[in-house]
Amino acid sequence: MRKPRRVIGILLILLIMPLALGSCQSAITASAPQNAASISEPTRSAEPADAGAVVDLLNIAPAYTSPVPNVDIKASLYFGYYNENMLARETYLISQPYDRSAASLLIEALLKGPSPARSDLTRLFPAGTRLTALREQEGVLFVTLSEDFLKTPPSFSPADANALSALRAVRRLALSSLINTVTEAAEIDAVQLLVASEQAGANGTRIARDEIFDDINSGGRLLGVMYRDETVMLTHANTLSVVLESWTRQNWNRLYRFVSYESTGGAPALEAFAAIMSECPNAPLYYDISSGSVSEDGTRAVFRADISWLNDGQAWPWSGTIPLMLEDGVWKISIRTLLRLGGYEDDFS
Predict the structure, then answer these.
(1) Cα three-residue angle 142-143-147, rounded to 5 degrees
(2) Of 191, 215, 232, which residue is a domain's last?
(3) What does the DSSP assignment read for 147-184?
(4) Which helix (H) or strand (E) holds 193?
(5) Would residue 329 count as lying in a domain?
(6) Do 80 and 205 fall within a single domain?
(7) Maximum Cα–Cα distance for the chain, whole Å?
(8) What is the span of the domain harbouring residue 334?
(9) Are 282 and 310 spatial neighbours (Cβ–Cβ below 8 Å)?
(10) Range with lowest mean pLDDT among 51-65, 198-212, 294-308, 325-339
(11) CB neighbours of 165 closer than 8 A, spacing ≥ 6?
(12) Does one domain contain both 337 and 265?
């Protein structure tokens, strides 16, 4: 009788095993998603835009659904300095909304011209010039201006070669002011100028190179990408070169604009200044100056200079230092320093 019982027991075991195995399999299956998630590759977000993608800087989509405080931007804008073919800076504090690019705000401020209080600075872009499109691609800023940029003054005569050259020089300096402003304030390498028109639309098209360059061999070429040009900026080194060049050439009218009179309580009349400079015992014949260094606060620059002076018909060498000071964003030489170099012993008054 033991044998039948043994067979029955085996049969019961065979019947129970599939049920047990099914329960275990269910338990494993139920826990699988949790374990799989912990070892699987993380979910990927959308791929970033290609490096060559064009970024529209005029029509920035709002990044927030709630108002975001404006950010104050402190930047240097470059304008003409009197009738010099050079640029001087004016510091601006611009409030930047979250949906506007810094470059667009700076260019629009540049197009409006300098502050009314800065009578020494001049507007370089024709009145009415507007920014119609602004895009960035791989470090190049594509700036589209309205057709007003190419307008000519009512008195302009295209047949006058000198007038045409002067007009091109102003346009060239205006473009340099834009390039130097945006490359200093943003991570921009170069600028491509475009001009809007009825045919080209708001995004604009390239202009002929001879619109801004006196290039008789341009052959109808279009204006390409342009880079930062510091030779037209009144940096501390460029300013000292202008001072010494004006003195050497006895261009008192030009020199007068680069002299600080703070220590004397005010500027003399141009005629009085010219008379005093004409009578200086020393007159520079030629000079060699270092690149100079600027103080930590950015208000003073000092140069090593080697100058050959003419005094009583005799040339004599001099080596020493020449300081400049920053006055309203323009580097200038003190009248006391100027007259000391000129051989005057008495203070200027």
Answers:
(1) 135
(2) 232
(3) GGGG---TT--TT-HHHHHHHHHHHHHHHHHHHHHHHH
(4) strand 190-197
(5) yes
(6) yes
(7) 147
(8) 236-341
(9) yes
(10) 51-65
(11) 214
(12) yes
**Pair 220, 308: CB distance under 8 Å:** no
| Among candidate residues 106, 103, 111, the one with its CA nearest the CA of residue 93 | 106
Residue 48 lies in a domain: no
- Are residues 322 and 200 part of one domain? no
Tokens 């390498």 belong to residue: 189
Structure token pair of residue 302: 């000092």
Structural domain ending residue among the three candidates 217, 232, 247: 232
The average pLDDT across 287-306 equals 97
User: Counting every residue, how long is the chain?
Assistant: 349
Query: What is the three-state SS of 300-338?
Result: EEEEEEEEEEEECCEEEEEEEEEEEEEECCEEEEEHHHH
**What pLDDT was estimated at residue 222?**
94
Which whole-number Å values give the CA distances from 329 to 28, 120, 203, 266, in the listed order? 76, 11, 34, 18
CB-based contact 337:347 (threshold 8 Å)? no
Residue 178, Cβ density class (10 Å: 0-12 exposed, 13-18 middle, ≥19 buried): buried
